[in-house]
Amino acid sequence: MAVAGTVGGRWWEARQHPAGASTAAAPGASGPATPASGERRILYYRNPMGLPDTSATPKKDPMGMDYLPVYEGEEADRGSAGQVRISADKVQKLGVRVEAVALRPLARTVRASGRVEPDERRVYTVTAKFEGYVERLHVNATGQPVGRGQPLFEVYSPELVSAQREYAIAVQGMRSLATAGSDAAAGMKQLAESSLARLRNWDLPPDQVEALARTGEVRRTVTFRSPVGGIVTEKKAVQGMRFSAGEMLYQVTDLGAVWVIADVFEQDIAAMRPGARAAVRINAYPERTFPGTVTYVYPTLKAETRTVPVRIELANPGQLLKPAMFAQVELPAGDPRPVLTVPDSAVIDSGTRTVVLVQLGEGRFEPREVKLGARSAAYVQVLEGLREGEQAVVAANFLIDAESNLKAAVHSLGGHAGHGVPALGAASASAPAAGHKGQGSVDGIDAKAGTVSLKHGPIASLKWPAMTMEFRVANESLLRGLRPGIQVDFEFVERQQGEWVITSITHR
């Protein structure tokens, strides 16, 4: 039975594999090798420098570097152009986090500095419309509070005295000619009315005019009273001085309500709306907030500070707010109506295109070019490119180059997205992070181009052999202190396809 089993097995094997055939692929056959049981299948080999070049069989690039294998499960999803597929364990390692594209109001707060100023409509100037002399001061100090109708000062004017006498004589003559002919009485009446009009035009108090008409007694001085209750903010009158017609003698300001003139930066001025509520804080009263209302946006811009004045009116109970005080103002800005938004951290701005990475399913991502609108502190409006409910990638919790920021983070998510979108592919399918480390010596520096040539040893994370190549630096400060021949340790990332950027370099 044993012999019969052996013979039968050989006969069956001959049936399955005729003479001349081999179970192994012939040497030089094209296509990836068939893996043994339990091994991952190699799909193709990719260029080790990140260039868009693949091969079905192992080979070397012009510098002698081996092409890197891409295994099943690590390839980009070819079912849809531009999509990226990565494994679930890599998503977990990278700390990828998504947030839904949703309708949100983009209300925000604009903060500006300002100063307290008097309400210009509540500032009154006290002056005389005739020449004269200051006979007596009733209020003799700047800053003194006064009430409405309170006497301020008394003046003597020869012209005013003459005008009073003329009116008194006209009134007396009009009474005497009351029984005379109509022409004489009418003429005297016209003279009296003319004299009375002159006194009224000179702002002689009505009670003094009435007393003059009743008694005929001419007063030597005239008393000027405050037109409003407030504070004497300016006093030029001095007892005994001579003044001219129209010269300002007192200025009285009502501080029951004041203005705050806030300097709003140019980029925020479009969000300012008259009628909006504002919150004002004063350093002198840190525990209090004074509510106000935006009443006017000035039409001029200050070229020195690139700011536009915005006027805020607010009540001043107890006159706590003093003119010239500094103020901190919070102004509401933005449209309270909900609009389609994504978190600000989801946006990748290359300078020429703006992209958001969208999660299509478990481990599948797609870059979307978007058009953005208004911004708030944490969110940005999306005008085109996304739909409500889609999941946008907003965070990946690992260290990335400060210059590449989110672009370098998206680098580690797998294959290149294509279509000219920079930094959407990983530098290496087998690298768990975007950064790589190396050691070597400086071969040359081009400060104008922002590059350094390094003669470095093997890079294990990329399977590079030792060679001399040129790197770009993330910022010019990294070139300081470098000179040819010194030994350095450096870290670098692939910012764009085939562009290697040094993010840190130190002397050894």
Automatic annotation (TrEMBL):
Gene3D superfamilies to which the protein is assigned, alphabetical: 2.40.30.170, 2.40.420.20, 2.40.50.100, Copper binding periplasmic protein CusF
Protein name listed in UniProt: Efflux RND transporter periplasmic adaptor subunit
BP-aspect Gene Ontology terms: copper ion export; plasma membrane copper ion transport
A cellular component annotation (GO) from this entry: outer membrane-bounded periplasmic space
Positions of the UniProt region annotated as Disordered: 1-36
Keywords from the named record: Ion transport, Signal, Transport
Top-level taxonomic group: Bacteria
Residues annotated as signal peptide: none
Organism: Ramlibacter monticola
Boundaries of every CusB-like barrel-sandwich hybrid domain copy: 124-252
UniProt record similarity statement: Belongs to the membrane fusion protein (MFP) (TC 8.A.1) family.
The CzcB-like C-terminal circularly permuted SH3-like domain, residue ranges: 340-400
Residues in CusB-like beta-barrel domain copies: 258-332
